[in-house]
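Notes from the 1:1 (GR / supervisor)

We went over the backlog. Supervisor wanted to see one worked example end to end before approving the batch request, so GR pasted a single chain during the call. The sequence is below; no edits were made to it. Supervisor asked that the structure be written out right there so they could see what the output format looks like.
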Amino acid sequence: MSGEEASDSTFTIQQELKLEFNQVMDTLILQISWRFEALSNIANDFEFLSGFHLNTLSIEDLKKLAADLVLKYSSDLNSEFLNEIECFKYQGEAIIPNLKMATYLDILLNGIKTYELSSVYPNLVIAYRLLLTFPVTVASGERSFSKLKLIKTYLRSTMTQERLSILAILSIENKMTQTINFDDVIDNFASIKSRKISL
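Structure output shown during the call:
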């Protein structure tokens, strides 16, 4: 309130540590929950492509789910996907021995790639590739942002964009960076920058 003096509330080191720890844990739980929910929604969209659902769902249900997927990913899939899913329901049972227990990767590699059916089911291949690459794209982006947080701290707030990008690449590719012989790099740099002294 105006006119009142603020009470000086000081925390002990243990209390400050506990507060910071709780803030970090809250952030982690929130981020993990958000990512889990986002990936669950994607998994639900593609769930009908599993071996179990291809084996048990009716053609009408498969076509309805396929039409919903085509609407969501219209830039990648076209309406032929509905016909492909209908044909593959019957052909998949013939070419994959235990379709009911088959994973997405089993269907894509053992069913479609082994029998060279990619040209027959191009939209189905795209759908499986989309599903199998979503988690990878999320993880690589997270890794880049995590590295940037480590590199650009408040002590390095005046760093230029070029230097930040170079340090981020070095940090992300640290296994390759560790194999570099820095003596050769320094000698090369010194020879380029050396100036001739005129007498």
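Supervisor's comment: The first helix runs from residue 13 to 46.
Batch request approved.
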